[in-house]
Design brief:
136 residues, mainly alpha, Inhibitor Of Apoptosis Protein (2mihbC-IAP-1), Chain A, 3-stranded antiparallel β-sheet, 56% helix, binds zinc ion
């Protein structure tokens, strides 16, 4: 991803990632701003309409309560997140900070995909074991 795309992504993230009509649990714009400032993007599913995912560490949180502080929740559930470590408004990031965040994001994305593949492989192995045991 090029720098311009990254800047665009961060701008979109901070301004349009949270739309009140997509987030029925906490319909307060101030809260939506806090969610975006804490690095969360709204990623709802049919079974979990209030799921929010960090755009850097990919930590997913759901079951939000109106009194929850998004930044505190993010810190509690993902204390090593590179976005949180920066402690800086996304609009004020330097190019170097932006590139470092992107690097961390790509590392986290790779880890997430590898973990999904491991789970998939473990399920496949369990099925094969079941088939083999049925031959005995
Ligand atoms: Zn994070």
């Amino acid at each position: 991803m090029q720098v311009k795309q990254q800047e665009k992504m961060l701008l979109e993230h901070s301004h349009t990632a949270w739309k009140p009509h997509n987030f029925p649990v906490i319909p307060v714009v101030k809260t939506l701003r806090k969610m975006a400032e804490a690095g969360f993007i709204h990623t709802p599913s049919e079974n979990a309409p209030d799921v929010a995912q960090c755009f850097v560490c990919f930590k997913e949180l759901e079951g939000w309560e109106p009194e929850d502080d998004p930044m505190e929740e993010h810190q509690r559930h993902s204390p090593n997140c590179a976005f949180l470590r920066l402690q800086k408004d996304t609009a004020k990031l330097t190019l170097q900070e932006l590139l470092k965040l992107h690097k961390e994001r790509m590392i986290n994305l790779s880890k997430k995909e590898i973990n999904l593949k491991i789970i998939e492989l473990e399920k496949y192995a369990a099925n094969v074991r079941n088939e083999v045991s049925s031959f005995r």
